[in-house]
Structure formats: structure tokens, C-alpha cells
């Protein structure tokens, strides 16, 4: 731990030295002596997701920057209305309309199995914000994936942090897997349902049963089954 | 007093050895939280044990001990607790005081003695025949901090996964159904299988279940009482 800190420290010293030399070089080329007003520092992150599943389209990726003390979901607690809508239908508009979020972005298209999608989000003068990425697994009742309140404070410009995400169950809709309740192409149903007809807490998802697997109400097949992890998510700090 | 002295000695040795500290015995104050991440699986009494790396509660690919079998088939941790205490382990037994329900957490603290520098955790999963959550000899870090570990579901390999009501006694078929699960476990299933495909400890293949609470092959509900790994989150706060 101590060694790691030392390494980080020397890296920042090096960065400072580079920055200083760059500054003095600028001064040589430039005889203006006025002190420029401080420029806002923009932090831009590019989020790239890759869908690792066999047959689960991920709904348009929702991206949000927010304070660390407000994870957008917690296992064992009730899903917000915005998350319930996202997890049941793939519609992330209410999830991203949360006024406590500092910056948001969304992909325009779903990310299909085997495909990748990139979304960027920017914020000014806030190195301490954390990142949430979320998407529904479309051929399910209320499965979603992503991560919430990821710490970005150690991410330097040009650095990438990659992790994989698991499938969660919003707990707001029973996992009937019926055509009416699955909004993805396998079902073509409505998606969102009124109220909270399941146990109403977020948990890990138990997986797809499918019709062949013995769930008579299911419109899903073995193609729609998944195991963890379900998405690979890379976050690169662009500036 | 003896412990304090020997701890002081240990610190001197550490300072001399700089960072070559891996594996050295030390004592620590631990706060351990176990959270059930599943939607519909219950954990029976949990055993959290800080012990010497010479011992282990279970080994993947090896036959379960009779103590592990009793825990995995019936949720009885007394055998493992006694066996580890005989090796001077520092145990937390049954921190949730009974079943730990879906998405619930339990937290307990323990001070480890020198030499007890790995942490193991086990608890049976219900409804399963011999499924359990397991942490096997996780090296307790010396640096104070908060550490997170995700646990997989294991199969003790000691009982056929028939998924129907039966007994929690070692060697007897079927799943035990304690009162809190009476209403969520089905009846009259004919049994998924009568054989054990792998008789060593292995990653659990998962419940099959069915959608018929009064018949079918299984007494397990196939939409709720299943899981994908990981099934538990362990948070260890090392202070000291």
C-alpha cells in the first residue's frame, strides 16, 4: 500500500514536471505578461460497452456523473421509479431526468450481442464526481446491468479503466418471461408495468429459465440465457 | 501481556524486513459483513473463521469432510466450529442468529490471534440439497482498509440434487425445510436426479426448479430460487 502511494506520488511529480516545462516553453514563445483568468477544467469520459451475452440486447446505454454519496441502486433496497422503468422497458429517460445528476448522456441505439457502443459525457471543474452506467437486458422482465458510483478521481487523462458488469434484477416485476412482459425482440411486449408486483428489492438476477427450461409462461429460449458477466465496460478519460 | 509483547516483536521484525511481509503472522481487528446477493435463496447459520493457513474448511476438487457435509446438507456448523476451535481459530458463529434472507446483511467483529492470518466463511444455501457459500483461506491483509470479496456457490458433492423436500441429516436425501421456508418451497416433486455426478467439492451447477408448486420434478421455484454467481458479498474492515 505504501509502495503504491509512492509510485502514484512520483507519477504525479513527473506529471507536474512535464506540465511545468510545457508552461515555461509557452512563456518563451509568448511575451504577453497579463495573467489569464482561470480556465474551467473540462473532464470528458468516453464509455465503451461491449455486450458479452448470447442473446440479450442491452438497451441504450445510460451514463450519468453524480456525487459519490448517491449510488443509483443498492442491493436489498427498492429500485427508484426511473430505474424500474429502465429495467422493465429499456427507457432510460426518467432514470436520467433525476435532477441530482450533474451530467448525463445516452446512446441512441441498443447494443446488440457481440457489438460495442461508445458514449461520452463531460463535466466542468469536478474531479470528484462518480460514474453510473446502466442498461436493461432487453429479453427479460426487469434485468439490468452496469455499475453505479464508480470512483473516477484517480483516472488520469488518457487512462482507461475496464471492468465487467453482472446482471441485476430490479425486483419490480415477476420473472414470468411472457411475451407480454418482455419488451425485447424475443417478446415484443409492453415492458413497463404498473406498480411493484414482485418482492421490490434489487438483487443479483437469478438468470433466464426459458420455455425449454420448464417455465410454461416463457416466450424465451435457450438463446436468451445468460451468465455473468454480461457487459464489458471501459471508461477512458479524454481530457 | 504475552500477546502484546510478541506483537511488538513482530512489528520490529516487520520494520526490518520492510515490505517482505507476506505470510507473516499478525493479529488484527476485523469487522466482517456478509450480504446475501440473491433474489430468493436463504443462508443458514454462517461460520466465519480466522485460522492458520495450515487448515481449511473445504478444498475444491477434494471430498468434503464430515463436518463440511453436515454444514452443507443441514446447515449444522457445530462440527466445523469445534474442529477449527481445536486449532485455536477465532470464530464468529451464526452472526445473523438464524437464517440470512435474500439481500439481507449481517455484521460481526473478531480479533484474530497471531498465526490466524486467513479468513474462511461457509453457510448452507436453502433451498438446495448440499449447496453452500464459501470463502476459502483468504489472506487477511495487514494494511488497514476496507476489502470486498464476492463468493460463489459451491456444491459439497455429498448428496444428489433431487430438489425435493427431505432431510437435513448427513447422508439422508432431500432438502431440509425449516419453518420460514415452509410456504416458499413446493411439494410433491418427483425428484430431479437420484445420483451425484461429482462427489468432490465443486462449483454448484445451480438449481433447476420448476413452475409447479404442487408437483413436477422439483420443489424449487424456477423463477425465484435460482442464482448466478456471485451469491454473496463479503466486506472486511481491517483496523489495527
UniProtKB/TrEMBL annotation, chain A:
* PROSITE patterns tied to this protein: PROKAR_LIPOPROTEIN
Is the keyword Signal assigned to this protein? Answer: yes
TM ranges are: none
Organism expressing this protein natively: Alteromonas profundi
Q: Which NCBIfam families match?
A: NF038123_dom
Please state the span of the N-terminal signal peptide per the UniProt entry.
Answer: 1-24
Positions of region (Disordered): 171-198
InterPro entries for the chain: Spondin_N (IPR009465), Spondin_N_sf (IPR038678)
Supply the name of the protein. Answer: Spondin domain-containing protein
Q: Which UniProt keywords apply?
A: Signal
UniProtKB/TrEMBL annotation, chain B:
Hey, what's the signal peptide range on this chain?
Answer: 1-27
What does the record list as coiled-coil region(s)? none
Q: Which InterPro entries match?
A: Spondin_N, Spondin_N_sf
Taken from the record, one Pfam family name reads: Spond_N
| Source organism, top-level taxon | Bacteria
Domain Spondin span(s) in chain numbering: 42-160
Sorted alphabetically, the keyword list is:
Signal
User: Looking at the keywords, is Nucleotide-binding present?
Assistant: no
Q: Which NCBIfam families match?
A: NF038123_dom
What protein does this entry describe?
A: Spondin domain-containing protein
Q: What is the lineage of its organism?
A: Bacteria, Pseudomonadati, Pseudomonadota, Gammaproteobacteria, Alteromonadales
Amino acid at each position: 500500500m505504501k509502495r503504491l502511494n509512492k509510485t502514484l506520488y512520483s507519477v504525479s511529480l513527473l506529471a507536474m514536471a512535464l506540465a511545468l516545462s510545457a508552461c515555461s516553453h509557452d512563456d518563451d514563445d509568448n511575451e504577453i505578461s497579463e495573467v489569464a483568468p482561470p480556465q474551467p477544467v473540462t473532464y470528458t469520459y468516453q464509455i465503451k460497452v461491449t455486450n458479452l451475452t448470447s442473446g440479450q440486447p442491452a438497451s441504450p446505454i445510460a451514463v450519468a456523473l453524480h456525487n459519490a454519496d448517491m449510488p443509483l441502486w443498492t442491493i436489498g433496497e427498492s429500485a427508484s421509479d426511473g430505474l424500474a422503468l429502465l429495467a422493465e422497458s429499456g427507457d432510460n429517460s426518467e432514470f436520467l431526468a433525476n435532477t441530482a445528476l450533474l451530467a448525463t448522456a445516452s446512446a441512441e441505439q441498443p447494443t446488440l450481442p457481440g457489438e460495442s457502443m461508445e458514449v461520452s459525457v463531460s463535466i466542468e471543474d469536478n474531479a470528484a464526481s462518480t460514474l453510473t452506467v446502466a442498461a436493461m437486458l432487453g429479453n427479460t422482465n426487469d434485468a439490468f446491468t452496469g455499475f453505479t458510483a464508480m470512483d473516477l478521481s484517480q483516472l488520469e487523462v488518457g487512462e482507461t479503466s475496464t471492468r465487467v458488469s453482472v446482471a441485476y434484477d430490479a425486483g419490480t416485476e415477476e420473472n414470468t418471461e411472457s411475451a407480454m412482459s418482455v419488451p425485447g425482440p424475443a417478446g415484443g411486449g409492453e415492458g413497463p408495468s404498473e406498480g411493484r408486483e414482485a418482492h421490490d428489492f434489487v438483487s443479483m438476477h437469478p438468470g433466464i429459465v426459458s420455455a425449454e427450461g420448464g417455465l410454461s409462461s416463457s416466450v424465451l429460449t435457450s438463446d436468451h440465457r445468460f451468465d455473468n458477466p454480461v457487459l464489458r465496460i471501459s471508461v477512458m478519460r479524454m481530457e | 501481556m504475552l500477546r502484546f509483547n510478541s506483537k511488538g516483536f513482530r512489528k520490529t521484525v516487520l520494520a526490518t524486513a520492510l515490505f517482505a511481509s507476506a505470510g507473516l503472522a499478525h493479529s488484527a481487528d476485523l469487522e466482517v459483513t456478509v450480504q446475501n446477493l440473491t433474489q430468493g435463496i436463504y443462508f443458514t447459520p454462517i461460520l466465519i473463521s480466522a485460522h492458520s493457513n495450515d487448515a481449511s474448511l473445504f478444498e475444491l476438487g477434494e471430498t468434503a469432510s464430515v463436518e463440511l457435509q453436515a454444514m452443507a446438507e443441514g446447515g449444522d456448523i457445530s462440527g466445523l466450529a469445534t474442529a477449527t476451535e481445536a486449532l485455536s481459530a477465532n470464530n464468529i458463529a451464526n452472526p445473523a442468529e438464524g437464517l440470512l434472507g435474500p439481500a439481507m446483511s449481517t455484521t460481526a467483529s473478531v480479533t484474530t490471534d497471531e498465526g490466524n492470518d486467513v479468513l474462511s466463511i461457509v453457510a448452507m444455501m436453502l433451498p438446495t440439497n448440499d449447496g453452500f457459500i464459501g470463502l476459502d483461506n483468504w489472506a487477511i491483509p495487514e494494511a488497514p482498509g476496507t476489502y470486498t470479496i464476492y463468493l460463489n456457490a459451491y456444491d459439497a458433492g455429498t448428496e444428489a440434487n433431487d430438489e425435493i423436500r427431505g432431510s437435513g441429516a448427513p447422508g439422508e436425501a432431500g432438502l431440509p425445510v425449516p419453518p420460514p421456508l415452509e410456504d416458499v418451497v413446493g411439494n410433491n416433486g418427483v425428484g430431479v436426479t437420484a445420483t451425484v455426478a461429482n462427489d468432490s467439492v465443486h462449483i454448484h451447477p445451480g438449481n433447476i426448479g420448476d413452475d409447479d408448486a404442487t408437483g413436477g420434478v422439483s420443489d424449487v421455484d424456477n423463477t425465484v430460487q435460482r442464482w448466478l454467481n456471485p451469491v454473496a458479498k463479503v466486506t472486511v474492515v481491517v483496523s489495527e
